[in-house]
Amino acid sequence: MSHKSQIKVAVVILNWNGRKFLEKFLPSVVSYSTGAEVIIADNNSTDDSIEFLQQHYPHLRLIINKENAGFAGGYNKALAQVDAEYYVLLNSDIEVTDNWVMPIIEEMDKDSSIGAAQPKLLSYYKKDEFEYAGASGGFIDKYGYPFCRGRVFANLEKDEGQYNSIKEIFWATGAAMFVRAEVYHKLGGLDEDFFAHMEEIDFCWRLKHNGYKVMSIPLTIVFHVGGGTLPKNSSQKTYLNFRNNFSLLFKNLPKNRLIKTFIARLFLDGIAGLRFLLEGNYKDTWAVIRAHFYFYRHLNALLKKRKGKEVHPVSTMYNKNIVFQHFLFHKNKFSELDSKDFS
User: Fold this and answer.
1) What is the pLDDT at residue 67?
2) N or C end of the chain, less CB within 10 A?
């Protein structure tokens, strides 16, 4: 790819059977993405997304993937064909606001150690409430449980400007993730074995291992529908979340933390499986068991991913157990967690 053709910012929407979202949200993306080129990458949709785009948005660049390789593979294939300084990975079920791109890019331009960033993510249906998939920046605890500034488990806070500060975080949401293109390719992009769910946390963790920072830059806001391709109560979602969370920890934890963490997780996952069972969600209990078996079967492949990699403790991890903090000590808000407990 010739350097001359490089654009500054490419907003890339990965679409899979999302015609209704494109129809609803693409107008705001096209109108408000000042300073960026909008590109649609289609992940082998079987609805009429492509015809819709060709008819109504013939001026937009359309990349067509020959297969649905999931979120990770779909983006890797598409971004290999996009020459830009920055990528913005944007879900199709997001409504953006005026000039939502450049204030974040300006902050990244000022500091070359920022590898990835995100805007503030609010709920499309409850516009004054943080959205589950990223809120005002993501974190994980020492056992791999993700939470956000503005969301602890299912507890979503109202946005009253309490998380408007620019802050270093652990992970940026894959629903609206800004990333330096050069760094994306240097790290080999998203891990395709994840297929969907948590690949952005894995990517951000790898960024940190390589000396980059991940930031929440809530100078701009986007509104996210959420659960766009898999419903919230899907047992497949439960399976992918547990399975990928194991891979995430195994790939990225320092060696001296691995055994302790996995023993604790066996206990915690046992409780989760039991809870699903008592609630009558048998498929979810089975999903947890399946996730464990997948992990044991793929240990060798995961060991290869660790081999020769720089794996060390990183900043902004929450060094307590968010499960206990939330369910036992009733900490429902990010602001109730002690900042001294973050590395």
Assistant:
1) 93
2) N
Strand partners, 146: 140
d(CA 127, CA 121): 10
pLDDT value at residue 1: 43
CATH: 3.90.550.10, 3.20.20.80, 3.40.50.1220, 3.40.50.970. Which one for 3-224?
3.90.550.10
- Is 43 within 8 Å of 65 (Cβ atoms)? yes
SS3 state of residue 237: helix
Cα-atom radius of gyration of the chain, to the nearest Å?
19
Q: Which residues pair with 15 in a beta bridge?
A: 42
Closest alpha carbon to 193 in 130, 268, 128, 251: 251
164 Cβ neighbours under 8 A, 6+ residues apart:
120, 136, 218
User: What is residue 164's predicted lDDT score, i.e. its pLDDT?
Assistant: 98
Residue ranges of the chain with per-residue pLDDT less than 50: 1-3, 228-230
For residue 107, give every residue at least 6 positions away whose Cβ sits within 8 Å of its Cβ, in sequence order, or none: 114, 117, 166, 215, 217, 219
Q: What is this structure's pTM?
A: 0.94
Render the burial of 91-106: b for 16+ CB within 10 Å, e for the rest: bbbbbbeeebbbebbe
- Residue 120 in contact with residue 220, Cβ under 8 Å? yes
3-state SS, residue 30: helix
